[in-house]
Amino acid sequence: LRAFAVPKGPVFAFNLRTREQYSDYCWFEGAFSREEVGRILDLAAAAPVEAGTVGLDHAIDGGIRRSVVRWLYPAGDSTWLFGRLTDLLWNCNEVRYGFDLSGLIEGLQVSEYGPGGFYGWHKDHGNGRHSIRKLSLTLQLSEPDEYEGGAMEFLCAPNVASVPRGLGTAVVFPSYVMHRVQPVTSGVRRSLVAWVS
């Protein structure tokens, strides 16, 4: 067998800026006030309820996910919310990730997990229209004592890490990072999810 030489430097390097503060996920406690969370819940209460689905075909699969969802779109009373999320996500991306972003081009999903509700290991990035997702955000809409279980966890190999769950806490992460919501054992866990493309 013939040995191959290993290059000593980059080959066709793009000279991209690296991110010293990159992380698999980050969070912002108190990103939204109690009053703002109340406004979000009021907006969601006016939207139709649907079963939480998985994949591009919107399959209902109780072995992967058990929740209900409502959708919010930018119009009238919700415009402030899209603006706030855009500012938070843009600033976080500038410091930590450096993705080339287009913006929030999907609706916001307000999820509700009652007793037995969960979402197994998954990533938000995938085939088709999901392939352009770059950053995901989850905003906690429940007080920590309103439910038991329901921890949001990330697979940061080889470890599993839980994130803070205070009311108004926003968690931001690249859409390709594996995450889950552990089963809720009592109460109701509510959260808002956004994807940036």
Give an overview of the whole structure:
The N and C termini lie far apart (46 Å). The protein is 16% helix and 31% strand. It contains two helices and 14 strands; from the N terminus they run βαβββαββββββββββ. The strands form three sheets. It has a seven-stranded antiparallel sheet with strand order 1-11-7-14-5-4-2, covered by helices on one side. With 197 residues, it is an alpha+beta fold.
Q: Which ranges are low-confidence, i.e. pLDDT below 50, for 5 or more consecutive residues?
A: none
**Which structural class matches the secondary elements?**
alpha+beta
Strand order of the largest sheet: 1-11-7-14-5-4-2
Number of helices: 2
Rg calculated over all Cα atoms: 19 Å
Mean pLDDT: 92
Features:
197 residues; alpha+beta; 2 helices; 31% strand
Outline:
With 197 residues, this protein is an alpha+beta fold.
Write the layout of secondary structure elements.
Elements: E1 26-28, H1 34-45, E2 50-51, E3 65-66, E4 68-72, H2 79-97, E5 108-113, E6 118-122, E7 135-140, E8 147-149, E9 152-156, E10 159-162, E11 170-174, E12 179-181, E13 184-187, E14 189-196
Antiparallel strand pairs: 1-11, 2-4, 3-6, 4-5, 5-14, 6-12, 7-11, 7-14, 8-13, 9-10, 9-12
